[in-house]
Amino acid sequence: MDGHESTRGRKLPLIAPEDDLCVARVPLFQGLTTQQQHNVASLAIPTRVGADEQIYSAGSAVSQLMVVHTGRVKISRLTADGHEQIVRVLESGDFIGEGAFIDGSRPDHFAVAVEAGSLCVFRHADLGRLIDDHPSIGMAMLRTLSRRLDETETRLAAVISGDVASRLADYLMSLPVRRIDGVPTVELPMAKKDIASLLDTTPESLSRQLRRLSDSRVIRLHGRRIALTDIGTLTSLSTPV
């Protein structure tokens, strides 16, 4: 994406002024006062993306930091045999494009919107001035990058030492939980084929494991909604960190 334009070369519509402040819910900027957040927002380019919109591709020049405001963005790489391997799914408040800002490197991955949403886009030159003026932004960025590294190491350990069942249990336990009729319940945030890629397995294997957990009454399936009916068993299945 270059300026207001996506990698497809067309202009993306700006968010209407009546939408909430683009930076207000972003952890990078939560250490700032309301007035400082407004100053930061004046530098942001609020940009809408559509479902399956490619934000940038591997090897492309990225001159902006893009913060997810609403929706989700998947980060993926292509394997040697041409298959997509999802590395991470970004939620509201997460950001991309920091590599080029820090060391000028080009991404080795693709960034694609999982669903329609919006981004707060900052030109790298503006971001540098913001960090000079508000060092807490730089510290928040470092904390996020450190957390990502920890998550990557945990996933790698799970792939090496755990089976699909344990990786699936880990994943289900990591999703946001809400209680429905008194039962802890999660909702799958994307298609099962994408979750299978994230867990380094096949869609068929993922479906088999979900059925086994359901048949064992560890979970109860309702489409994308999954009731966690036996937290104890899920915990015992999950990979120790």
Commentary on this structure:
α3 packs across α4, α5 (164-174) packs across α8 and α6 (192-198) packs across α7 (203-215). The protein is globular and about 55 Å long. It has two domains: 22-133, Jelly Rolls; 162-237, Arc Repressor Mutant, subunit A. The strands form three sheets. The chain has a four-stranded antiparallel β-sheet with strand order 1-8-3-6. A four-stranded antiparallel β-sheet has the order 2-7-4-5. The chain has a four-stranded antiparallel β-sheet with strand order 9-10-12-11. It has eight helices and twelve strands. By secondary structure, the chain is α+β, with helices and mostly antiparallel strands. It has helices spanning 34-41, 98-103, 124-133, 135-161, 164-174, 192-198, 203-215, 231-237, and strands at 45-49, 54-56, 64-70, 73-78, 84-90, 95-96, 110-113, 117-123, 178-180, 183-187, 219-222, 225-228. InterPro entries: cNMP-bd_dom, cNMP-bd_dom_sf, Env_Response_Regulators, HTH_CRP, RmlC-like_jellyroll, WH-like_DNA-bd_sf, WH_DNA-bd_sf.
